[in-house]
Write a structure and sequence with these properties.
seven-stranded mixed β-sheet, Rossmann fold, 9 strands, binds S-adenosylmethionine, about 25% strand, two-stranded parallel sheet, alpha/beta
Length: about 230
């Protein structure tokens, strides 16, 4: 828990990425609320409530779900308006849809492979037709992170990463269609040190400019997906 709070402390690499991503998340949900007239939102695997706190003012009704009671306590403090539930998404009585929008951040890359599809299917069952799913892939492969996680000193047994193709397959198998994809951050955290950090952040800004975005987006480490619930839940 503490290490997770440290991850997003001001000035860290993860905070930097989130600072770029957050406006896109908030604005997409704000537009969705404007379109629908109200928004019933679920933040699945809400952790300490980072996402709930950011979107608190956009949703009319917010629910956060997390399997960890300790995380849930922090989420309740981060977003006092939200209803926080402790449990696994796979438990029958935890989700109470239909939701207009569901956010899932920093979950799929870390989750065991066999859990990803059942989780998406369960979420889909609690979304109305056309509802919006927003989630990130913070370990996009291939990207420069793919090299960093293979450097022997840092290498986990199996690098935790996901390809765009894996995401497309998961969404197709669970009744979603991708509507938008955004990319943030070309360089892995290990390079974001001292003076180099500001130079790399300048390169990120240039790479995200409208003229370059379509070439650079697929090389970015952090990928944000916006998808729609389509077809029948499976
Ligand atoms: C890396 S944290 C992400 C927290 C938050 N979404 C964010 O981006 O700041 C992943 C969270 O998933 C939760 N989690 C893992 N498996 C879960 C499950 N089956 N059902 C609900 N929550 C789960 C963990 O307890 C943890 O809080």
């Amino acid at each position: 828990m503490e290490s997770y709070t440290r991850l997003y402390a001001e000035g860290t690499y993860d905070d930097y990425v989130w600072t770029r991503e957050r406006p896109v998340v908030v604005e997409s949900l704000r537009r969705e609320r404007e379109r629908l007239g109200s928004l019933r939102l679920l933040d699945f695997a809400c952790g300490t409530g980072r996402i709930l706190a950011a979107v608190d003012h956009v949703a009319d009704e917010l629910t956060g779900v997390d399997i960890s009671a300790e995380m849930a306590r922090h989420a309740a403090r981060a977003s006092p308006r939200a209803t926080i539930k402790v449990g696994s998404v796979l438990d029958d009585d935890v989700l109470t849809g239909p939701y207009d929008a569901v956010t899932v951040f920093r979950f799929f890359v870390n989750a065991p492979q066999e859990l990803r599809l059942p989780v998406l299917r369960k979420i889909r069952q609690h979304m109305r037709q056309g509802a919006l799913l927003m989630f990130n892939n913070h370990g996009h492969s291939p990207s420069l992170r793919s090299l960093a996680v293979r450097v022997p000193r840092h290498r986990p047994q199996v690098p935790n990463e996901l390809r765009h193709r894996d995401i497309v397959d998961l969404l197709n198998a669970s009744g979603f269609r991708i509507e938008h994809r955004y990319g943030f951050s070309l360089f892995p955290s290990i390079l974001h040190r001292h003076l180099l950090a500001s130079a790399l952040r300048g390169v990120d800004t240039a790479a995200a400019s409208p003229g370059l975005r379509r070439f650079t987006q697929r090389m970015m480490i952090e990928q944000l997906y916006i998808a729609r619930a389509v077809g029948a839940p499976r």
